[in-house]
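Reading a protein record of the kind used here takes little practice once its layout is understood. The reader may check this reading against the record printed directly beneath this paragraph.
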Amino acid sequence: MDPSPVEPAPPNAFTVTAEGTSDLTREQTRSARFVAPSRGVRYPFATSDVRRSRAAAALLGSRVGAVLCGTSAAMHFELPVPPWIGLARPDSDAVIAVPSGGAHPDRRGVVGRRLLLRECDVTVHAGLATTTPARTWLDCAGVIPLEYLVAMGDAILRRQLATPDELAAMVAWARRRRGVLNARRALTLLDPGAESPGESLTRTHLMLGGVPRPVCNRDIYHRGIWIARVDLSWPEYRLIVEYDGAVHLEERQRRRDAARRNQLQEAGWLVITFTADDMRQPWLMVTQVKRALATRSPR
C-alpha cells in the first residue's frame, strides 16, 4: 500500500543556467534570497522546510531517475530514525539513489548510491520521487541498529504505508543484500499496535533479552470502568511497562501519570516505568522485567 499519488507540490527549488531562469537574471539567482546547495540549483532562503527543499534541489540536480532513498527517504515519510540522524542539521547531505549501471550521483550536498530499483520500489511522496516505504525500510536495515529498524517498521505498519506481507516480500527479494539479516530479524519483532518509537524501542530491547512478547496499547478496565491505555502489558501476570518520553516531563502530565499509576496499582497491576536514560543500559531493563514476571503468579 503505497502513499497516494495525489500529493502536495514539491518545494520551490529550481535549476539555473548561465543566463539565470525565465524569471530571474543570473545576478538575481546569486542574491541572498536564494541558497545554492550545489551547482545549478537554488531554493529560497526563507523556506519553511530546509531538509525537504535541499532534497528537492538534490533531485533536480541529479540525472533522470534519481530518487530519495535510505534515511533521507525515511525522514521524508516522517518515519522514526535514530537520534544521531534525526537531529542532524537540516542542511545535511541528501541520500540520493540512481538505478544500478547509471552514473554515480556526485555533487555537493548529495550522498550518492547506485541501487537495483524495480518499478515497484519507487513512488512519489509530497511531490518528491522516493523509494517506497517498504524499500526505504529495507535500505535502512543496513545502516541503523535493529531496535530502530523495528521502530521504523512499526510506524510503517501502523500508518498502513505497507503491509506485513509487503515487508516480508521485500526481505525475501533482497536475499544477500546489505542489511537483509537485520531486516529478517526485525520482521519477527514488528507490531503495528505500537504507538510511539519509545514503545517500540522498549519492547525490542525486552524481547531481545528473552522477555515474552507483550501486548501493545491494551485498554485496562477495573470493575467495568476504564482506567488507562498502557504501553506494554503481560495481562496474565498483571504487569505493565510504560515508556515516558519528553511529553511526560510537564508538571501537569506528571500529576496525571501519578494518579493513573495509583489507579492501576489499586486494580492489582504492577507498573514499571522506563525513560530514555534506561535505553542506555537495556540489560538492566530486561533484568527488572524478568524479576517482576518471576515474582508474579500467572492468572
Residues 251-266 form the longest helix (16 residues). The domain at 197-295 is CATH 3.40.960.10 (Endonuclease; Chain A). The first strand starts at residue 14 and ends at 15. The chain has eleven helices and twelve strands.
